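Typical record is below.
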Amino acid sequence: MRARAARAQLRHRGQRPPRGTGGRGRSHLAAALGPGSGRSAGMTSKDASVTGDDFGYCPRRNQGIVDCFLAGAISNVSLLVNGSAAADAAKLARRHNIPIGLHANLSEGSPVCEVLKTNSSLLNQDGFFHGKMGFRTALSKGLLNMSEVKQELKAQVELFQELTGHLPPHMDGHQHVHVLPEVRHVFAEVLEEYGIKYTRVPIEPGLHNCDWIPPSLMEFYLGVEEDSFNTVDVFTKHGIRWPDMYIGLSTMGRNMSVSSIRSAIDSAVLQLTARAPHSSTGTIELMVHPGYPSVPPVGGCGGGPDDFSQSWERLHELQTLIKPELQSHYKSRNIQLCSFKDL
């Protein structure tokens, strides 16, 4: 009853995106469906975890994620501890018993480690992180000090624990920086040191067939995929686990729709079945980012809200995720939402 009432309330909030523009969302759905590779144990065909990323980015993002959780559309969140509303997000998670993990950020805003806020290889000339592509460029040129990367990651884990009262059950990377060369090794060491069991490996089945994705964006996604393939052995060596399948690149922002999520889930289920036809378990992660659009100057991680957070796509994702037909599809595929800590 609570989820149904929340969905009804949400339909009256904000403006819908322009007619005919489509849409896709970013958050995470870790869903246990059918057979899997066995990387994540203890799941049944009726378990799933759906996680909303960027919790803590701004008050409006926080409220949208909470509303989405109360509507039964997500079951897990990832916190940006350097987000301008991180403390408020942690309080909301406690108030509503929302399972919460860490969205480690090395690319947007400011570091949380005090000694790295000046004269650090992680900062650009303006004193902020290098940005999604700037971080990758600096890394490729050998300009990033991996000891500083490790220092900042540990500081974010410590701040997460301070804000929430516990260590994160799962930890992934904002803008997928955690699977990049060199960074992946440091990231894995930090997870092992703190006993954090779960992460994300963004390898999406069927990605190459998504002809609606612009070439420039597809180039970035394929780079993320290649980095992820090269990360598998590193994470395995450190005893880190992740869901068998990942969805979220092809269903992001304007590309999110009930049909796109439904198709991506069905494709993942088919691959799980083909991989292990006699298994009764398997896991899938769906990445999504629901929320209400940021209103400048409020929000961001130190440098104000970015264009993505201000766009109609955040609300579009929220409105898509709470649609009854999507919830019905989960039920038809024996998907029952859970959190990473239940894996």
Notes: The beta strands are 28-32, 48-55, 76-79, 100-104, 171-173, 245-247, 283-288, 337-338. The domain at 2-13+25-342 is CATH 3.20.20.370 (TIM Barrel). The chain has one domain: 2-13+25-342. The longest strand covers residues 48-55.
